[in-house]
């Protein structure tokens, strides 16, 4: 008798959950009453023949965010839900999520330092308008280039300053000089020194992560020759604000680092809000190394990248 009821309840469950029959139709098909169908469905669930699993993408994101916080000792993580695992699409969704996060923390009197790059540009286009009092936007790294490629440095700074109705402080220099001596001499210029100090004292820093792929924006901008590019690619996995680091997150080319104009990675560690926005399969090694280096305390990414970072 019990076996017959078990079999009947399983058949009812299959018709209801798999074939999507209504309870009334099941009753008609099997020649039983509708209340009997309802009781058999409940019996199937009670016996464990039917298990209902609710997939909540919001809750899933929240779980991954907390796991990343714990794994990499971060203050906060925000994960954007990208429709597809495509680098350009991911940048758009990360940009929107980063803009929303910044809107939630920014307030009057904040000094906001910004890097450059395509992901940061997407964020700057998605900022939520808010007029700030006593605040300024400052460029964290030199942005002048004579390449045909755009680094969006000027666009990003303008978008931020216009959005927050405040003043932008430009760093009108290339990000890398040919020699350490020239770079150090330029650093002593009164205006340049002031902008660099503002970047150092900014309580909020927003920046992306670069790779060492041949098509990486830093290389396309022509800041290094082929020989130096090859040396970088042999030891580095990525960069933040054009400062290159190895797989453990350590600066790996001190000679190049000494010629680089802008905020140092050690200074990023001490920010109240050090916000790293990055995603995409190709950037996973660089992002992982940056997180190991603890250069960010807030990380904004996408669900595909988050899953990769949680694998090891």
Automatic annotation (TrEMBL):
Query: Which keywords does this Swiss-Prot/TrEMBL entry list?
Result: DNA-binding, Transcription, Transcription regulation
> What InterPro entries does the annotation carry?
HTH_MarR-typ (IPR000835), NagB/RpiA_transferase-like (IPR037171), RNA_pol_sigma_r3/r4-like (IPR013324), SorC_transcr_regulators (IPR051054), Sugar-bd_dom_put (IPR007324)
Q: Which Gene3D superfamilies match?
A: 3.40.50.1360, Homeodomain-like (1.10.10.60)
Family, as annotated? Belongs to the SorC transcriptional regulatory family.
Domain Sugar-binding intervals: 57-311
* Any one GO molecular function term: carbohydrate binding
* A Pfam entry, by short name: Sugar-bind
The answer to whether UniProt assigns keyword DNA-binding to this entry is yes
The name of this protein is RNA polymerase sigma70
PANTHER family named among the record's database cross-references: TRANSCRIPTIONAL REGULATOR LSRR (PTHR34294:SF1), TRANSCRIPTIONAL REGULATOR-RELATED (PTHR34294)
């Amino acid at each position: 008798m019990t076996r017959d009821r078990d079999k009947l309840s399983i058949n009812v469950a299959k018709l209801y959950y798999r074939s999507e029959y209504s309870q009334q139709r099941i009753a008609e098909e099997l020649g039983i009453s509708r209340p009997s169908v309802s009781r058999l469905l409940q019996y199937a669930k009670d016996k464990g023949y039917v298990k209902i699993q609710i997939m909540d993408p919001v809750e899933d994101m929240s779980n991954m965010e907390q796991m990343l916080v714990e794994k990499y000792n971060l203050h906060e993580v925000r994960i954007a839900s990208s429709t597809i695992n495509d680098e350009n699409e991911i940048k758009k969704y990360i940009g929107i999520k980063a803009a929303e996060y910044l809107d939630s923390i920014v307030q009057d009197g904040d000094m906001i330092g910004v890097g450059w790059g395509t992901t940061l540009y997407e964020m700057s286009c998605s900022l939520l308008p808010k007029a700030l009092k006593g605040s300024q936007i400052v460029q964290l790294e030199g942005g002048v280039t004579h390449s045909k490629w755009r680094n969006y440095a000027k666009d990003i700074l303008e978008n931020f300053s216009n959005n927050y109705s405040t003043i932008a402080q430009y760093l009108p220099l290339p990000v890398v000089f040919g020699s350490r001596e020239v770079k150090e001499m330029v650093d002593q210029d009164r205006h340049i020194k002031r902008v660099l100090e503002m970047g150092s004292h900014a309580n909020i820093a927003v920046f992306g992560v670069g790779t060492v792929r041949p098509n990486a924006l830093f290389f396309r901008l022509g800041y290094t020759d082929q020989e130096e590019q090859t040396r970088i690619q042999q030891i580095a996995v990525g960069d933040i604000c054009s400062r290159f680091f190895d797989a453990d997150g350590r600066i790996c080319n001190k000679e190049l680092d000494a010629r680089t104009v802008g905020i140092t990675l050690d200074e990023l560690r001490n920010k109240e809000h050090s916000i790293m926005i990055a995603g995409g399969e190709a950037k996973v090694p660089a992002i992982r190394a940056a997180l190991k280096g603890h250069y960010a305390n807030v990380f904004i990414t996408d669900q595909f990248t988050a899953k990769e970072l949680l694998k090891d």
